[in-house]
Design goal:
The protein has helices spanning 12-32, 41-49, 55-62, 78-93, 95-101, 104-135, 151-178, 183-209, 214-236, 272-289, 295-303, 309-330, 333-342, 354-389, 397-420, and strands spanning 238-244, 247-250, 253-256, 259-265. The protein is mostly helical and 436 residues long. The longest helix is centred in the C-terminal third of the chain and has 36 residues, at 354-389. The radius of gyration is 24 Å and the shape is globular.
Length: 436
């Protein structure tokens, strides 16, 4: 896929978009290292090191490492994702939101406003509980994490972390509009990639100290390569539905009559279901992590540790639900069947109209089932192995899936820019036909 990247230099606009994206991601990484006022970051990091293997590790992965030092981006982009899930679900059950979804750009603008308002509310709630929980924490020698606990610190932390998430939300929208697209996904991607060198170093350190055998490390590398190959195969796999257009005679000329296909990806929803599922699980469980002295909260925290039975059951159910949900959002068989009928296209052996939409819905349902099983296997099975092998959490299937999925989407965006300007781009064939 790297073939033809030299053509990027021939597209000044694409160069600007890539440079702008990198600059915004650099700003994000700088903010990760700015702590919330009133926090002793060194003690916070020491306390966080004792929480390896818990759900806080997963939350910190999505936060790009901002949680361990309680930075201004400690909440990450997850509240925005949770708010968008709520708004999309309301679009399926509430008439007002359903009507807004059908009003085009004006309706989408209104839904975006509701999503932003919901993000602020979720940030305020989550940051309050997080600040209150941090006040109860102390270092190995009993030194407090919060220098001056009380409402002053809580309000400061709430305003700081809420503003940080809102800034990340704006940053993601700017990358989507002025960069190379997928702004929110790229922010999560940058956070995971930035922490992977630390995870590799920790694995080597564990091998040197004897906590992780060389044989186990080799097995882990082979397993990761196998998972990587499987993810790339599944993310690019398609089910091609044949489409036929009849010949049309206009005067002395004959038009149409060509055969084509409708490509349906096995995993239509991409990396969205694991991200959505994680955001739903992380929100209440992370709050419980900061209250170990409360029996009810401790019970929730212990039950929701990655690798646990309850956590995996909820995670699998959430992934399956969001796989079907997001597929229904991005692909409507009725609209596709109507568009085919308007342009004279049909599936061979299937009547146009409702019969075509039913056929597409049947095919898509089967593909979605396979895609849901694939996502569950990739996200859960490596996590079970990691919990038994004492390996850093960043090597989990969820992180690898997000990294590969976002990389493929980004490459596709770059390729689209190249092709739209009549360059070969990532294509291995010659120049675009009809061009000399």
């Amino acid at each position: 896929m790297a073939y033809g990247f030299d053509n990027i230099g021939k597209v000044p606009e694409l160069q600007k978009r890539i440079l702008f994206t990198l600059l915004m991601l650099f700003v994000y990484r700088i903010g990760i290292h700015i702590p919330t006022p009133g926090i002793d970051s060194a003690i916070m990091v020491e306390w966080f090191e004792q929480q390896k293997g818990t759900l806080l590790g997963m939350f910190d992965m999505f936060a790009g490492g901002g949680l361990r030092s309680l930075s201004i981006f400690a909440l990450g982009i997850m509240p925005y994702i949770s708010a968008s899930i709520i708004v999309q679900l309301l679009g399926m059950v509430h008439p007002t939101f359903e009507q807004l979804q059908k009003e085009g750009s004006a309706g989408r603008h209104k839904l975006t406003q509701y999503t932003r308002y919901g993000t602020v509310v979720l940030c305020l709630v989550q940051s309050y509980f997080m600040a209150f929980g941090v006040e109860q924490m102390s270092g190995p020698a009993g030194e407090p994490v919060v220098l001056f606990p009380g409402w002053g610190f809580r309000l400061t932390a709430m305003i700081t972390m809420t503003t940080g998430t809102c800034f990340l939300m704006w940053l993601g929208e700017q990358i989507t509009e002025r960069g190379i697209g997928n702004g929110i996904s790229l922010i999560i991607f940058a956070g995971i990639v930035a922490n992977m060198p630390v995870a590799i170093y920790n694995s080597v350190r564990l091998t040197r100290t004897g906590e992780l055998s060389i044989f186990a490390l080799l097995i882990l590398v082979v397993f990761m390569l196998a998972v990587l190959a499987g993810i790339v195969f599944m993310e690019t796999a398609q089910r091609r539905v044949p489409i036929q257009y009849p010949k049309q005679i206009r005067g002395r000329r004959v038009y149409g009559g060509q055969s084509t296909h409708l490509p349906l990806k096995i995993n239509v929803s991409g990396v969205i279901p694991p991200i959505f599922a994680s955001s739903i699980i992380v929100f209440p469980a992370t709050i419980a992590q900061f209250f170990p002295d409360v029996s009810f909260m401790k019970m929730i925290s212990d039950a929701m540790n990655p690798g646990g039975v309850l956590y995996n059951i909820i995670y699998v159910v959430a992934i399956v639900f969001f796989t079907y949900f997001y597929t229904a959002v991005v692909f409507n068989p009725v609209d596709v069947a109507e568009n085919l009928k308007k342009h004279g296209g049909y599936v061979p052996g299937i009547r146009p109209g409702k019969a075509t939409s039913d056929y597409l819905d049947k095919v898509l349902s089967r593909l979605t089932f396979v895609g849901a099983i694939y996502l569950c296997a990739v996200c859960v099975l490596p996590m079970l192995l990691i919990s038994k092998a004492n390996v850093p959490f960043y090597f989990g299937g969820t992180s690898i899936l997000i990294v590969i999925g976002v990389s493929l989407d980004t490459m596709s965006q770059i390729e689209s820019h190249l092709i739209s300007r009549q360059y070969d781009g990532l294509m291995k064939t010659g120049r675009i036909k009809s061009r000399r």
